Amino acid sequence: MNREEITNILREIKPGAELVELPTEGALECTYITSLGVFFEWIPLDGWQFYKVNNADHVNLSKIIEKAKLKNLSIADIKNTWLGELYDSESGGKIHLLNDFFSNITSLNPANAKEVYVHVRDVAAHFYATRIEFEADLESHLSSKVLRWEDMSDYELAQWVEKVTKDTPSFPMFEIYN
Questions:
Q1: Of the residues 9, 23, 114, 160, which has the fewest C-beta atoms closer than 10 A?
Q2: Phi, psi (deg, nearest 5) at residue 153
Q3: Where are the domains of the chain?
């Protein structure tokens, strides 16, 4: 295979992440693989901030979205819901962050949200109604950080194409069931 054929294969892959626990360092070594290239980072052991919510409650979600639009969301609104579970795990229950944390939920259309994907970053949750929307935003978010395929040596490209063709990249997420 020549360089162009290899980069064409790599540009077709869906985003994936490989996590390696480094307990003595108290960290996760994360390798993100995207159609643009790869990105490496270390994060705290409890720092993985990607979620998939199954069977989202459309009625409750609609009410919460309306309150979030008005920046009038309270802990009582999310108590005993998957949103409460998400908020507690990411914020430690700090009430003053609530409306900022959920400010991006207003982009969701509850009627289309059978599964909801969430990426928590910059003290806010980013919500996606489809896996495709999640993957597109993730690639956009990582685009300035990745080591691009075209900037790699032929040897590195050959290693990566062997890796992704032998073992299709997956993207681990915490799953929440509603």
A1: 23
A2: -75, 165
A3: 3-47+142-177, 50-134
